[in-house]
Write a structure and sequence with these properties.
CATH architecture of the largest domain: 3-Layer(aba) Sandwich
Protein name: ABC-2 type transport system ATP-binding protein
Helix content: 25-40%
InterPro entries: AAA+_ATPase, ABC_transporter-like_ATP-bd, ABC_transporter-like_CS, ABC_transporter_ATP-binding, P-loop_NTPase
Organism: Gellertiella hungarica
GO molecular function, one term: ATP hydrolysis activity
CATH superfamily of the largest domain: P-loop containing nucleotide triphosphate hydrolases
CATH topology of the largest domain: Rossmann fold
CATH class of the largest domain: Alpha Beta
Shape: elongated
Pfam families: ABC_tran (PF00005)
Order of helices and strands: EEEHEEHEHHHEHEHEEHEEEHEH
């Protein structure tokens, strides 16, 4: 596995009113990966990001960014990190070019017009460079926020709900932008409510709820491990009831007895499907067609959160 660029160790955060936003979070983020953090409102996603970015002070534990402590070495770590916040906070009467260039200067970087031009081109903003922000659509304004976050050439980019309120087509455009950024070597951490966003672009998925990180797992491994599958058999003849000989398989009938559904865990596929089909044949049941269906990441997410409810 590539080396970690962000290390979160035993991180806690309790606010002045006593609310525990984070409860001992441990997390390693590898250089060059895309990590999606999923969780309901109030789960702790934004608090976690805010601490890593040096905006909020932790109550306990520590965070290292590029080997530097985010509290003690604030200047060094902030130079490594770009943050795209949820809110569209920009000067509406400033031009795209000026607001992105100014953001670079705020981080103490020397002017580099060629780099700013490349960022704007990558984000399809070059033809809008002289537009005032108030002239842009919401989706374009969100791209400007990404350009500002990239203006100082960070190695890590945090996207807090990057496509909230953005239409489906623009959301897919944004996914392509994120993919290109990763190809250029930028590590990307995004929080999202859109499960398909994590399913589409993330390498790993973290699920956070109630201030605790429930799991962090490779996306494909997670879906294999937790994604229940269904085997759907379209029967040659409809069944009125499931035969006693098949009672141990937890089967159910659908479509007025014309379909038989078998639920099984993904990792049971090889050692249970064979015996099940043999038992089906022994019971004199034949089928015309067979298909499988696998749970989505959304089903997995809902089941994980439900277990803690």
């Amino acid at each position: 596995m590539p080396k970690s660029i962000i290390s979160v160790e035993r991180l806690t955060k309790t606010y002045a009113n006593g609310f525990e936003a984070l409860k001992g979070v441990d997390l390693e983020i590898a250089e060059g990966e895309i990590l999606a953090l999923l969780g309901p409102n109030g789960a702790g996603k934004t608090t976690l990001i805010s601490i890593i970015c040096g905006i909020v002070t932790p109550s306990g534990g520590r965070v290292l960014a590029g080997g530097h402590d985010v509290v003690r070495d604030f200047r060094e770590t902030r130079a490594l990190i770009g943050l795209v916040p949820q809110e569209l906070t920009t000067d509406q009467f400033e031009t795209v070019w000026n607001t992105v260039s100014f953001s670079r200067g705020l981080h103490g970087k020397k002017p580099n017009p060629a780099y700013i031009e490349q960022v704007l081109r990558d984000l399809s903003l070059w033809d809008k460079k002289d537009f005032m922000l108030r002239q842009l659509s919401g989706g374009m304004k969100r791209r400007v926020l990404i350009a500002k976050a990239l203006s100082h050439e960070p190695r890590v980019l945090f996207l807090d709900e990057p496509t909230a309120g953005v239409d489906v087509n623009l959301r897919k455009d944004m996914w392509q932008v994120v993919g290109r950024l990763r190809e250029s070597g930028v590590t990307i951490i995004l929080t999202t409510h859109y499960i398909e966003e994590a399913e589409e672009i993330a390498d790993r998925v973290g699920v956070i709820d109630g201030g605790r990180l429930l799991l962090v797992e490779d996306k494909v491994t997670l879906m294999k491990k937790l994604g229940a599958k269904q085997l759907i058999l379209e029967l040659s003849e409809p069944l009125g009831a499931i035969p006693e000989a098949l009672s141990g398989y937890g089967l159910r009938l659908e479509n007025e007895g014309q379909a038989l559904v078998y639920d099984y865990d993904g990792h049971d596929q090889t050692d249970r499907i064979g015996p099940f089909l043999q038992a089906l044949s022994a019971a004199g049941i034949s089928f015309k067609d067979l298909s499988t269906r696998q749970n989505s990441l959304e089903d997995i997410f809902v089941s994980l959160i439900g277990e803690r409810a």
